[in-house]
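yo, Regulatory protein VirG is done. seq:
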Amino acid sequence: MVANLHLIVPNIVSRILLVEDDQEIAVMVVEMLSDNGFQAIAAGSATDMDALLRKQSFDLIVLDAMLPGEDGFSICRRLRATSVTPIIMLTALSDDIDRIVGIEIGADDYITKPFNSRELLARIKGLLRRSSYSAEPRSQQSPMQFAGWLIDPALRQLLNPDGVHVSMTTAEFDVLLAFCRNPGRIMTREQLLGLTHAGTAGPVERSIDVHVSRVRQKIEPSVHEPTMIKTVRLGGYMFTPRVKDC
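structure:
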């Protein structure tokens, strides 16, 4: 069991919650994040994590897959049901299927142990940057409409034709936003990856496919016969609706 590690740094912008039962890794990651201007807290189990989440909110969660009691995959699924907080999963499992499962249940990124601390830091900064509207120029933040839906890049919100907010992960929102900014254009998986950095820890084709599948589940009238996000054989995907600025 890892004791909660709480290093407070003045003028902190982002708070990171690390859920990791390995004491050595937890200390290393918390110190690395603290040294780079973040407020970092570590919890060694789902129980410890839940206690912290009841007390405060976090800007990003780094979640180990292999934990005592409730594992990271179950935790990720549970968190994603009620929260859009960006999640990076850590695992010692190198099998591609485990990476894809993590993405399917709502993780935004994935990194395999042993990992380079600088790579983890870059992933965290990148994901926080993508989840913040301030990273884009104002000209790129105008709300857009398609097929009765409204996507707002500044507020990072998606509203369905009835005006109801639809919850999306950071990666899912980025994928849909890339489509909305390139309607009627064939987008290769590599292009989508370059525009969104979605699933950078896994194979390009499979990680993008998973995110596209999750977006389809949220916007398509029929997931089995998608009309808005068309698959282009040997090409990638095409977003078919007419998109207009609001």
